[in-house]
């Protein structure tokens, strides 16, 4: 005879609880742990990477897993199969879907605040061309100031020269210390630069602030600096966060800048090239334009940017596939960021200990990249030495890593003049860093100095 329990499909020893299972008379199922992507699946997603190279430089060009590359190819085929259908029915919808995902990831208030462009360089041109118009159309006066970090990215500095200086802006650089020990040092220097900007009654019209500087690499206390700008009456604030999305936490409503850009092809697994440009809704917002003018001119930056002539838009359409990829990891992109940060610090400390050097900043001032001092006996004495040494490491040791030159200060004995910027991304293995460690130790043991490298 069937027992009461059996009739209710409950195992003999189960007691009904006042929960959903009991009320619906369903057996309580054992919780099944979600299955996350395995190590071997990660390796196969990146099997197209050259296996002979220790690629510890995700920061420069990012990476794209094979499942996303396949998705991109599907989009390309969709276009090539029936371009007219795709243009009229698929493209705008696809770009809007990507923008919507980005809007949620960055906590923007409104979808109109999010445009997709090629890269951070394009985003900087959009913002700085607007500033140039503010000068040429009389909203700003010649001699009004713009403040930027000394460590601003080279291409962005050129853009400031091309658009702001040429329009009559007075550009002031924030001198940042390196190595750096605390956010306070950065905040102090930033305040000093703003004071210089405001000297003689000048107005500070623009602040360009990096979220994560490129070289040397440091996470800047951007929220605090934006707040200071607001208190000091800076007109417009542009955050160049080329590295940020997928690397450090970003929240548009918390950061409160006017413009903020980040590449998705660096730390967010997209193929090149795709970046978002956030622009807070304000009168300035409606005067932003894509540098390539096409049919949509005047319809708002997001719409202008979604058609800048016939070209391949597939990299802008794969954002949903990237989201699927990152959600295969425990805690999605948040978990990836956390584990990359922990790993890069561990690897950086391992290298610094072996070479008897130090990290360029404390762990709380870096995300998935960290600067590691190189032994001073390598004799790095110029930027050209850093490039030559990088080439040497690539060609002789199969290690890919960028190097920063730091000019020694007066009176320093055996100063560290070279710092390597190491990255950690999901595909990296411990062996990648051991290969780098051993390469430098071999150079030191054999008495190598940069003077031995030809021009
Ligand atoms: C801080 C910063 N800004 C801008 C850029 C330019 O990015 P992209 O070449 O994708 O335009 C970079 C690239 O590394 C960067 O590090």
TrEMBL record:
Gene3D superfamilies: Type I PLP-dependent aspartate aminotransferase-like (Major domain)
Gene Ontology MF, one: carbon-sulfur lyase activity
Domain Aminotransferase class V: 93-282
Compositionally biased spans, kind Basic and acidic residues: 1-10
Region of interest: Disordered: 1-25
Superkingdom, natural source: Eukaryota
Entry protein name: Aminotransferase class V domain-containing protein
């Amino acid at each position: 005879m069937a027992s009461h329990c059996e009739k209710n499909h409950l195992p003999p020893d189960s007691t009904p609880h006042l929960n959903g299972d009991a009320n619906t008379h369903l057996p309580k199922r054992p919780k099944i742990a979600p299955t996350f992507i395995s190590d071997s699946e990660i390796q196969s997603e990146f099997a197209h990477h050259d296996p002979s190279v220790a690629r510890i430089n995700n920061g420069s060009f990012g990476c794209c897993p094979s499942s996303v590359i396949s998705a991109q190819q599907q989009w390309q085929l969709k276009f090539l199969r029936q371009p007219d259908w795709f243009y009229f029915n698929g493209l705008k919808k696809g770009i809007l879907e990507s923008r919507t995902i980005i809007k949620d990831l960055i906590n923007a208030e409104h979808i109109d605040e999010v445009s997709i462009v090629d890269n951070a360089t394009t985003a900087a041109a959009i913002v700085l061309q607007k500033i140039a118009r503010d000068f040429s159309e009389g909203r700003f006066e010649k001699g009004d100031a713009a403040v930027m970090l000394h460590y601003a990215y080279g291409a962005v500095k050129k853009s400031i020269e091309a658009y702001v200086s040429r329009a009559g802006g007075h550009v002031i650089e924030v001198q940042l210390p390196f190595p750096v020990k605390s956010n306070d040092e950065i905040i102090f220097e930033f305040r000093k630069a703003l004071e210089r900007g405001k000297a003689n009654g000048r107005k500070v019209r623009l602040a360009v602030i990096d979220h994560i500087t490129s070289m040397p690499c440091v996470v800047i206390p951007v929220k605090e600096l934006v707040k200071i700008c607001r208190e000091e009456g800076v007109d417009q604030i542009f955050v160049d966060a080329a590295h940020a999305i997928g690397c450090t936490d970003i929240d548009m409503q918390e950061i409160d800048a006017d413009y903020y850009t980040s590449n998705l092809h660096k730390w967010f697994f997209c193929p090149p090239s795709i970046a978002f440009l956030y622009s807070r809704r304000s009168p300035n917002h409606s005067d932003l334009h894509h540098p390539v003018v096409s049919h949509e001119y005047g319809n708002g930056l997001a719409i202008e940017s979604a058609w800048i002539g016939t070209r391949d838009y597939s990299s802008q359409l794969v954002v949903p596939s990237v989201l699927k990829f990152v959600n295969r990891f425990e805690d999605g992109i948040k978990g990836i960021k956390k584990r990359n940060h922990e790993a890069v610090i561990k690897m950086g400390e391992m290298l610094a200990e072996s070479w008897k050097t130090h990290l360029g900043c404390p762990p709380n001032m870096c995300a998935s990249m960290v600067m590691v001092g190189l032994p001073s006996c390598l004799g790095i004495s110029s930027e050209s030495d850093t490039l030559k040494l990088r080439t040497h490491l690539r060609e002789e040791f199969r290690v890919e890593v960028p190097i920063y030159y730091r000019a020694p200060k007066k009176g320093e004995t055996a100063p560290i003049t070279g710092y390597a910027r190491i990255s950690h991304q999901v595909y990296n293995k411990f062996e990648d860093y051991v290969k780098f460690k051993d390469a430098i130790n071999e150079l030191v043991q054999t008495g190598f100095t940069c003077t031995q490298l030809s021009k």
